[in-house]
Design brief:
alpha+beta; 4 helices; single chain; about 25% strand; about 160 residues
Length: about 160
């Protein structure tokens, strides 16, 4: 499994999100500055204040995404050794009576759907902050984990780790 492929794919999505947030922030800042004449701005300063707040929000989001990207770029995509405990960078499959789920355990990018190299399947990104991510961290192949989501507890068995 080429996990670097997954990291690169997730990084590209984060870069695109950061670029979108930056463009939106720049546009909102220009809107706050240029959207009305000086007389109109004096009369209705609330519009400019709201646009400036929106610009700050977009630019803050951009900064958070870029920080997440820096963290992702330090992720080591080495294969898991037999018997090793699950950590960041692992691709994990869990199963129960209702079916299975395969995911990439990453420090950021929760909810993103990634394609495997060669289009060979899909992986959702799960972070250690999610119930499933917390449950599998430091576990091993064959371990059972309980995951509580919205008051419903599900038991899963870790059936594959790479």
């Amino acid at each position: 499994m080429n996990k670097q492929y997954l990291i690169d794919q997730l990084a590209a999505r984060l870069r695109a999100s950061a670029d979108t947030a930056e463009r939106s922030g720049i546009f909102a800042a220009a809107e706050a500055r240029d959207s009305a004449t000086l007389a109109e701005r004096k009369e209705n300063s609330q519009t400019a204040i709201e646009a400036a707040g929106l610009a700050r929000g977009h630019l803050d989001r951009m900064a958070r995404i870029r920080a997440d990207l820096a963290t992702l770029e330090t992720l080591d995509p080495s294969p898991m050794l037999p018997g090793a405990r699950i950590g960041l960078g692992a691709v994990v499959e869990v199963e129960n009576d209702e079916g299975g789920r395969t995911f990439f355990l990453a420090p950021t990018g929760a909810g993103e759907e990634l394609t495997a190299p060669g289009g060979d399947g899909f992986f959702s990104v799960v972070t250690p902050h999610s119930p499933l991510g917390r449950a599998v961290m430091n576990k091993k192949l064959g371990d059972d984990v309980e995951v509580d989501v919205g008051g419903n507890t599900r038991e899963w068995t870790i059936t594959w780790v790479v």
